[in-house]
């Protein structure tokens, strides 16, 4: 160990230390942004391992990102040594559930080699179900996705939904779609993201073997960002913690920002009642930001009505005023931000990674990305269309998914004619129709191609060749993951397909594929004994949680993704009415959620904060439109704001 546990604990203030030293029973740490909640949670784990000889393998720790879990482990290793946390279960709810499901999913009829459907796969499946009921022109896949997600986040299975969640004829249709969607997922041996949590809870509730295993193993249950748990996650933690109730949660009700994904502030508000009697610790000192930034955060959030009373006191004094900057349009906005960043780096005052640009929605990143590219500012867009969502990467992963789990219809549909092998769109439609009417997977339908009259003999042969190719690959599954990927790419001619195109875009795709192979290589080194199926499960989660790399670059992300992070200089851009708060906000509750998001954004800053808004913006039709500054700007305490009008030179 590089530092002793004692030394490490000395870093904590008395309230933090008190929280870190309560090992048994329920504990709620509720505190404002930057008050050291995550730090306290981390140090508590180190304390339990280092001073109480509690084994890491008995801990279940839910974090907002897998990267956050990784950082936690690194910190603990410094005090407790490298082996101390090797078998801790720490990660997002999704990745923790994946592991439980791999082990016990068979109770629910899943093979351990199940696939995970991402949002795109799941929307396509919904569309297919719509087609079965001839309603594809009437509804958008988002509508069913929302209904189904809402059911799953609240642990309503199909039967429950049919009885309790149907109020209108549309609901009736959606419940039917839910039923068929679940049936088809099951047939594909696949789960969507929300299934991961719901199915784990089902396992715990209905199978004594699983419950006993989990409750014996996980003696200590912990969660960061508890303000954003949904009902299913709440229930999962509750089941795991039973019967000792050694449950330790940290959160900030003022930072609850995932209501649209079923997060419910009630869980943190009711914690003390649900886990009575419980130890509650409040942390009131902010160590992250200077006094001005803390005042800005407090000034905005105090306009909300529904929250626990609490003030946050800054540990750091002073700070320059908050910059409220008016610009002509989003291109000028990008130019201003780019200019300031370059200036500070050139003068040697800052490095690229000191800066973060936060916005309300992913599509706002475009003008910044373009200009940064042009100005050679190293930058990374976090979230959005991540690496794993790129066409070529999804294709490769789809090949692997099909080999691993041939029932995976979403993956097989994607690659059966890519590269082109003579299975055209019409033949694919016939296969689909046959699979649907005979209730079999696409793979099965392909094997039965001789029974499909509408597909001619020549195409039939091509289809059979494809099925044989997949079966051929399955013989090599125990090859190491990297060599296997290379073999598949080589045999299918997938890389050659892009190489032959010889366009700059195709060249970029080839480079991305090489990057993918480097990732696989690294994975192989870190996990020498893991099989392809585990690799696939882990990468499918990466798609949703593409994390910021710790390299020296400017980070761009939504305020939602910035939760838990901190940066010396933060720009919140597009601080305009209808952008932020979003035009979707209908009522007071929506506005309060947006205001919590503003609080999250503001409190990411350590030293400098810029809020920029424009007088005009490009609207969705491509024209320029006059826009208003956001109401949140008026809520900043006047005495700490510096208004900047950037001279317009046209
Ligand atoms: P958020 O609400 O944004 O998740 P948090 O409450 O989890 O914030 P941390 O991220 O744990 O806060 O801590 C914020 C910053 O303050 C970190 O840089 C951390 O190292 C620092 N910090 C926390 N506690 C102390 C302390 N007692 N002394 C010095 N620095 C501290
Ligand atoms: Mg935190």
From TrEMBL:
One GO biological process term: recombinational repair
GO cellular component, one term: DNA helicase complex
Residues bound to ATP: 31-38
Boundaries of every UvrD-like helicase C-terminal domain copy: 291-564
Top-level EC class as recorded in UniProt: isomerase
Lineage: superkingdom: Bacteria
UniProt entry keywords in alphabetical sequence: ATP-binding, DNA-binding, Helicase, Hydrolase, Isomerase, Nucleotide-binding, Plasmid
UniProt-recorded name of the protein: DNA 3'-5' helicase
Source organism (scientific name): Paenibacillus rhizovicinus
